[in-house]
Amino acid sequence: MVQLYSTTINLSPTVRDNVSTLLNQRVGLFTDLFVQTKLAHWNVRGPHFIAYHELFDSIASHLLNAQDMMAERAATLGGSAGMTVQDVSEKSTLPAWPMTIRQDTQIIRLLQERLGQVANEIRHDIEKAAEWGDADTADLFTEVSRQLDKDLWFIEAHLDV
Questions:
Q1: Residue ranges of the Ferritin/DPS domain (predicted)?
Q2: Cα separation of 28 and 5, whole Å?
Q3: Domains and CATH numbers, the chain
Q4: Per-residue pLDDT tens for 81-96?
Q5: Based on the number of CB atoms within 10 Å of its own CB, is 144 exposed (0-12), middle (13-18) or buried (19 or more)?
Q6: Which of 31, 36, 60, 94 has fewest C-beta within 10 Å?
Q7: Rounded CA gap, 7 and 77, in Å?
Q8: What percent of the chain has pLDDT over 90?
């Protein structure tokens, strides 16, 4: 168990520890996804450059918002918030971003894969938080899930899926 700060939130220390740990894992994952989305934003090329450039920036903004909510929830529960860049690199479940890819449709497919992976992990986290009895974190994950699904819809609308 991690050292928790004192709080009057009536969840058990075990639940608060488990949820804070999970939230911080997702903060790290969202950090990686944010950086990869910005790499797509900065490096995309093709006939629809400006549309993709702006779309990727919008998605990156949503990721930062979700990351902030999750980190603040971990702190609210008495845990520490966030993780180091070194930990993000070590613990992320996302594949590394291929820096040689610039073509717009290839980048769209890479983002589709990564957004889909993260969206599916968050859906699983909704269930975990609910099983642990933390309805507020389950609700937070649901909010994050809705935005990820919407962003994924925007990405997939550019594909012939």
A1: 22-160
A2: 21
A3: 13-156 (1.20.1260.10)
A4: 988 889 888 989 999 9
A5: buried
A6: 94
A7: 7
A8: 87
